[in-house]
């Protein structure tokens, strides 16, 4: 069996020699090129398991080669070497189709990890596929045959071949973690750990220790060495759920870990390399968070290299029948499976689902308790009218997360905004007006149930978790007794 062949493209003789020696010691065949022209000639002649190129070459830029390889040699991953501190170049290369990047001075440990990951990816793309059981599990996480879901699954398969960070956006309950697990399952990292972290559920004082681990004796209660989330996900995928909830001091530390691919445990004096694929998710609009100053712009650009938007359930109502069948099969017990009556299915397909798939599951689980004879009727669903505030609360994050506007664009928008207003009576601030409406409705429900949040959630047709989230967001507190 012939050894995999690697193409190194760099005009620095010393670095080229260092890379070649390291790769040969890994049992790989290596070809070297000093220019884009020489690299193109070698690509036309040989098949490569990985191309590694510098960003600045005598006859052009490495990003040109990235685009050519991504378009012409689709099964060949290409990685770039960027100058120290050139984060923008790395992000641009990843957006252009690069598999990964290395920063100068090149760390040999990082090089070996990246090459091993690329070889797994190249092997998977050239004919080795996951087992049928694994593939079936991966494809069944996101249910639905609508056009938007077929397109989403196709995007996931393409994203799985890269190491570029992915930012998953979508409303609460739309299945962001399922999409992240699908990306992991379709990737060459499928046999490595997938670690999902809810950034909003970790106390700020413990964040650094939870993410990076700690040494014994680093603080009171640190009785043993412990790995953090990055070490636990080493070789696999780390999902940062609700990443917009990270406090600013932690965002700085996270940015360094992403850029350097090294982490230092609390109480340690040295950093250790980590190899993780980062996937972030949020129901908030990160670009808006950047504009408000609650999220760092440099971290935004690092995490938002590729954006994957999950459609809300109301945009794919034709999938509800298939999804309901799958959910009922899982929820039904003792081998007896309930079914939806045609009228019940029609009612569900006419409902806007502000809580998305999670709300559908809650509705069906409740309906099973009331269904007679294994058939769920319209009355068993107990669907309640959806208020404007419910929909607006869900929709305010549904738009794709666009980067903050450049100063010229912002100035142009300011000119447009200064145009004479239309003579229509409108609230001064629509979000504030909708928040006021939602706050009043929730307060009324809480007053009617004597502040029993479980009963209030039932009354409003939402889950307890949704009610708790809304109360926190709208600063609704239990009155002092």
How would you characterize this protein structure?
The chain is 47% helix and 12% strand. By secondary structure, the chain is α/β, with parallel strands linked by helices. The protein has four domains: 5-125, Rossmann fold, CATH 3.40.50.2300; 148-309, Rossmann fold; 313-384, Helicase, Ruva Protein, domain 3; 389-419 and 428-473, Arc Repressor Mutant, subunit A (Orthogonal Bundle). The strands form five sheets. The chain has a five-stranded parallel beta sheet with strand order 2-1-3-6-7, sandwiched between helices. Strand 11 and strand 12 form a beta hairpin. The model is unreliable at 127-138 and 406-424 (pLDDT under 50).
Side-by-side strand order of the widest sheet: 2-1-3-6-7
CA distance, first residue to last residue: 77 Å
Q: What is the total domain count?
A: 4
- Which geometry do the CA atoms define? globular
**CATH architecture assignment name of the largest domain:** 3-Layer(aba) Sandwich
Mean pLDDT: 84
Radius of gyration: 26 Å
Question: According to CATH, what is the topology of the largest domain?
Answer: Rossmann fold
CATH class of the largest domain: Alpha Beta
Count of discrete alpha- or pi-helical segments spanning 4 or more residues = 22
Task: Summarize the main sheet.
Answer: 5 strands, parallel
Could you say which structural class the secondary elements and strand pairing correspond to? alpha/beta
Strand content range? 5-15%
Number of strands: 16
Q: Uncertain segments of ≥5 residues (pLDDT<50)? A: 127-138, 406-424
């Amino acid at each position: 069996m012939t050894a995999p062949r690697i193409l190194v493209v760099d005009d620095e003789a010393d670095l080229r020699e260092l890379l070649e020696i390291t790769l040969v010691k890994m049992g790989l065949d290596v070809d070297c090129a000093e220019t884009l022209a020489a690299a193109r000639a070698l690509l036309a002649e040989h098949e490569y398991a990985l191309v590694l190129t510098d960003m600045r070459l005598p006859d052009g830029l490495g990003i040109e080669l990235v685009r050519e390889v991504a378009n012409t040699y689709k099964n060949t991953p290409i990685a770039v070497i960027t100058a120290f501190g050139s984060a923008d170049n790395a992000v641009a290369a990843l957006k252009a189709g690069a598999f990964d990047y290395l920063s100068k001075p090149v760390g040999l440990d990082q090089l070996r990890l990246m090459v091993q990951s690329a070889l797994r990816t190249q092997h998977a793309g050239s004919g080795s596929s996951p087992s049928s059981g694994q593939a079936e599990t991966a494809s069944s996480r996101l249910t639905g045959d609508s056009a938007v879901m077929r397109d989403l699954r196709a995007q996931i398969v393409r994203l799985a071949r890269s190491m570029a960070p992915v930012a998953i956006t979508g409303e609460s309950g739309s299945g962001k973690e399922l999409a992240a697990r699908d990306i992991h399952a379709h990737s060459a990292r499928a046999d490595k750990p997938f670690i999902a972290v809810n950034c909003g559920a970790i106390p700020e004082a413990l964040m650094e220790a939870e993410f990076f681990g700690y040494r014994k004796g680093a603080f009171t209660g640190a009785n043993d060495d412990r790995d953090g989330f990055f070490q636990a996900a080493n070789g696999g995928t780390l999902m940062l759920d609700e990443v917009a909830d990270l406090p600013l001091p932690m965002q700085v530390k996270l940015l360094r870990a992403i850029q350097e691919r090294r982490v230092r445990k609390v109480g340690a004096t040295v950093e250790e390399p980590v190899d993780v694929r980062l996937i972030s998710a949020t129901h908030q609009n990160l670009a808006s968070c950047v504009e408000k100053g609650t999220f760092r712009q440099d971290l935004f650009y690092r995490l938002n290299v590729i954006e994957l938007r999950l459609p809300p359930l109301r945009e794919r109502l034709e999938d509800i029948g298939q999804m309901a069948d799958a959910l009922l099969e899982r929820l039904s017990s003792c081998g007896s499976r309930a079914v939806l009556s045609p009228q019940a299915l029609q009612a569900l397909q006419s409902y806007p689902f502000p809580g998305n798939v999670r709300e559908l599951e809650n509705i069906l689980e409740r309906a099973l308790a009331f269904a007679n004879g294994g058939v769920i009727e319209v009355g068993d669903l107990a669907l309640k009218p959806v208020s404007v505030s419910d929909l607006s609360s869900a929709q305010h994050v549904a738009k794709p997360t666009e980067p903050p506007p450049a100063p010229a664009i912002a100035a142009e928008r300011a000119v447009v905004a200064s145009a004479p207003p239309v003579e229509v009576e409108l609230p001064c601030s629509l979000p504030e007006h909708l928040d006021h409406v939602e706050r009043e409705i929730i307060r009324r429900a809480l007053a009617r149930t004597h502040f029993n949040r479980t009963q209030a959630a039932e009354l409003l047709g939402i889950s307890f978790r949704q009610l708790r989230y809304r109360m926190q967001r709208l600063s609704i507190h239990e009155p002092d007794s």
